[in-house]
Amino acid sequence: MLAAFDGTEIAFWVWSLCIVAWLLSAARQQPVSGKKKLRRLEAKVDAIIQHLGIELSEEMMQGGLSEEVKRLADTGQKIAAIKLHREEATLGLKETKDDVESYLGG
């Protein structure tokens, strides 16, 4: 047998559902942009680096290639240069390939 609902109980559930629907729609309309997420992550990484007392070399700060990567690229060992740069910079394959090719292209 079904329990009887009075008007105030029904109104409570209707308003509750409306509030939930409104919150869900508001959350969808305000996505965090990729740039904003990146800034947040960079700030966190900077705080961690500072807390741990890690000193970054100038090459690492500028995203440049290490001397070993440059040497490999200059001697025609492009794949080895890309692999080493990927390990050093912890970047994706496309980014490291672009960096090495950009260096080789002048």
Question: What can be said about this structure in brief?
Answer:
The protein is mainly α and 106 residues long. Helix content is 75%, strand content 0%.
Features:
6 helices, mainly alpha, 106 residues, single chain, 0% strand
Structure description:
The protein has 106 residues and is an all-alpha fold. The protein has a domain at 35-105. 75% of the residues lie in helices and 0% in strands. It contains six helices and no strands. It is elongated and about 85 Å long.
Topology:
Layout: H1 7-29, H2 34-52, H3 58-62, H4 67-74, H5 78-89, H6 93-105
Helix pairs in contact: 4-5, 5-6
User: Which descriptor suits the 3D outline?
Assistant: elongated
E-strand count: 0
Please state roughly what percent of the residues sit in beta strands, choosing from under 5%, 5-15%, 15-25%, 25-35%, 35-45% or over 45%. under 5%
Extract low-pLDDT stretches.
none
The percent of residues in helical segments reads: over 70%
Helices and strands: which structural class?
mainly alpha
Please give the alpha-carbon distance between the first and last residues. Answer: 81 Å
CA radius of gyration is: 27 Å
Strand count, sense and barrel status of the largest sheet are: none
